[in-house]
Amino acid sequence: MIKTLTGPQFASTFCLRPQQLAWFLGAGASASAGIPTGYAMIQDFKKRLFCQLSGVKQREVDANDPIWIERINLFFSRRAVLPPPDDPTEYAAAFEAVYPTPEARRSYIEDAIKKGTPSFAHRVLASLLTTRRVPCVFTTNFDPLVETATTLTDQLMEANDRVYMTVAAIDNADRAELCLRESRWPLLAKLHGDFQSVKLKNTTDELKEQDAKMRRVLTAACARFGLVVIGYSGRDASVMDALTEALAAPDAFPGGIFWVARSARAVLPAVTTFLEAARQAGISATIVESQTFDELAADIIDGIALPSQLFNHVYQSRPDPVLRDVPLPTQERRLFPVLQCSAIPILSMPTVARRVEVDAPITTVRVRELLRESEVKALAVSNGRDIVAFGADEDLARAFASVGGRLAGTHELRPDRDSWALGLVYDALTRAVCQGRPLFARMRRKGHFVLVANGSPKDSKANADLRNAQLSRLKQAYSSALVGRVPNHNHPFNEGVKLRLDQAAGRWWCVFEPTTHVETPRPDGKEGLADDASPDSAPMSLRQGDPVIDWVRERWATRYNPVWARIISAWADLLAGQDGDTLCALGLQDESGVDAVFQLSPVTGWSRPSHEHDYFLRGGL
């Protein structure tokens, strides 16, 4: 079992004998300095290659967006272009695929490193180099951060106390060998080259074999010193082979090996294999858990005595603490709303429906079949024995005559207790908000949708003007078409909301979730979906593997909070209508039956803060 230490525990050990440990820096050590990490560069390469192969514009792709990352990975998983994600060769293969020539790769690296400035951790390491506490540093990085930081710390010292660190890259490896042979420390050895080097190691072929001289320097240094590895994943086989080769030397890694990672569980198998081999060779091998190079540097600097000029230089760049004391509030919390909810209160709703007695118990499925067969416009369910319905009495009697249907007064609705009553009121609410508006309902067992209806060229001018007026706020909120066809697929789409009837804070709510509904063919090839479709025939746009799901996601990806707020407000106004309006599910104009009548408020729910995080609504959810 490989031993694990925390950052402070390692710092205590390191500060006792810093001169016995060399350092090895990977790309992660430069992350806080503004240099792109290996992972960030992989994402950038994959984005550029994705755009080349798919024809998508680069400015349309956000390589940091999880949705785009998922889409790009899915794209490459279906093509034998790159190794799978997290494969050790992924970086090299992606870099070479996007930039095939060494000149282009060198230009890319030069542009990337211009973004960097020595971080707090680089200043700490430079101070250790200047005070001769660290003998040598190896790195796979091309950036000049370590040498820049060390030049600055050198200049803060008296001339006789400056160390004038030797910097050697793969194109001047003789310098490194000379330092090793004559013990001229400190040394910075850049294994993959310097950004100014003619040759850089980036691609798979370039990384297959480490430069022989630099490899000898690395393995020889490992025979003299222990090693602290930070910001390095262990992906390069050439480096890992060199470190493994060093294990065979007598008394290798006399100061031990300390591999720094965010978590012991996060190290790659190649690293675990190397550390296990070291342990079996009698070498102390430890994983140090520390989140960042800066965090580890802060642990180290707390236990090292530096000259005052270096101490002040280092602490000028210390990152602001993540946790800090804040003043306690001196007044009561504010009571005004802070979060808008996509829910509007139901001011009134039906409390009774028509009761229809039948000769024998009947199911809701059979009830709805009878309504369709008789072409009756009504809403009805079974309560287990009788039928409870909204509709014209004459129509209900005709629809249920075949099962002995007899009108028998009304039945009280208690949707908070009876699931059948909740379902009936839910159906009625969905129908009611569509009445007199350019909307239509899609009734699903897994949830009902209210969608914007297509206008017809045959509509009169008065009807067209009314439709445009009713949808004007919604059009402004979306700033895009509310209905149309999906590009390249030609499936019709409608903007809409998924409705839910919910009870909270002592009242009933019409909860709505804006969504884009795409009507795609069913597996049997038939177009369209029936209003009472089963879950198996739900819209394909709601299923995994839908060919238009990417289009739907992209449509919503850039609709940030201000756009969402406008969309929610516009839907609230459209669903509720004017203050005091009553909404009828069936539009019955007289006493010929029982209609489902609702009154909704256009004012959405707003949350109110609480110190106990027990959020409740002020006039809403």
Characterization of this structure:
The protein is α/β, with parallel strands linked by helices. The chain contains 20 helices and 24 strands. The chain has an 8-stranded parallel beta sheet, with helices on both faces. Strands 10, 15, 16, 17, 18, 19, 20 and 22 form an 8-stranded antiparallel beta sheet that branches. Strand 23 and strand 24 form a beta hairpin. Helix 2 (38-54) crosses helix 3, helix 2 crosses helix 4 (90-98) and helix 10 (212-224) packs across helix 11. The longest helix has 18 residues, at 461-478. It is elongated, with a radius of gyration of 35 Å. Mean pLDDT is 85; it is low at 206-210, 527-544 and 611-621.
